[in-house]
Amino acid sequence: MMRTQVGIVRAGPAGLLLAHLLHLRGIDSVVLERQSRAHIEARIRAGVLEHGTVELLSEVGLADRLLRERMVHRGLELLFDRVGHRIPLTELTGRELTIYGQHELVKDLVAARLATGRPLLFEAPAAGCAGLDGTTPVVRFEYEGQDRALTCDLVAGCDGFHGVCRPSMPAAAHTVFERDYPYAWLGILAEAPPSSDELIYARHEHGFALHSMRTPKITRLYLQVAPDEDLAGWPDERVWTELRTRLARDDPDWELADGPVLDKAVTALRSVVTEPMRYGRLFLAGDAAHIVPATGAKGLNLAVADVATLAAAIEDWYATGSTALLDAYSASCLTRVWRVQQFSWWMTSLLHRAPDSDPFAERLARSALRRLTGSTAAATAFAENYVGLPLTGGPHDSP
After folding, report:
1. Topology annotation, domain 2-47+101-174+276-353
2. pLDDT of 322-353, one tens digit each?
3. First vs last C-alpha separation in the chain
4. 347-364 burial, b if ≥16 CB within 10 A, otherwise e?
5. The model's pTM
């Protein structure tokens, strides 16, 4: 049986960053990852980092490569009625966005963890948790063909919505709030230079489209489709045709660059919040506790905020013996989670065309977009939410 102070389930951005923050505080941990190192470092995920996320990574020595290779965005474009409207994010807020692939961030975090010499076990799937309401919880896992157990003081469940940590909480001890949206995203990764220096969010009569990027040579693009869309019905030629239609504008000099499609997938849009984010000595973080629709690019950044809060609480507990910050963890995180959920829901609803949309709803959406792009006050409120709230503390709405 292994023993550590904090058992961390899964080596995604949340788990790896938490492990590093604890290491800097002199707190031991073991990270259990079900997949291989090669798998998690190749997994294509989000790529938009808020200003506060980059600040934290820089403060703890994890941003050297990020700062060298990132793409900095100081604005974004809202496209509707074939006209683009730029929202000057940095001008309105004094903050900027960073484009840096999540898999690249995971590479940096894995390297940093291995450099500490503290345990990071790959191909070690967790099977469940026990003793969460006691003082020595146990995480059961498999490693090198054998069933094993990790005894710890605290467990950090960073293993996503379908992981083993959240289901280890008694059903009566938590509530899951969910909303499934009546649309999904068909996303492609293309070997093509970005057609714009900044992100383009488009609302079109055919549905939403997003032009994003990962590097100066790789473009990430999305189309609104039905949740049950058959990917086989979307050959590359159809994807590019529809992207050109939805991203079209009254500008003869603009053209959508295309190229070989490297990856293609359909992803449903959901909102999920688990309350509380804690049971006994189990603390949920990231997608294990909440999921937001991808429209606002908030999922990774919410996970970073969770573990920044949790690391400080764990440090205080070991240093003082007080449980005050651990007890406040869930409520503190949920304040930010619900603010971000509201923004992501609003942005998603505004930019997507609902299956039952009618002319009245369409005119309401167009009016809202005109207000957003024509009013400095409205644009500022949008920009403040988009570039990111403070990671911890700050003036948030109550959940």
Report:
1. FAD/NAD(P)-binding domain (3.50.50)
2. 999 999 999 999 999 999 999 999 999 999 99
3. 40
4. bbebbbbeeeeeeeeeee
5. 0.94
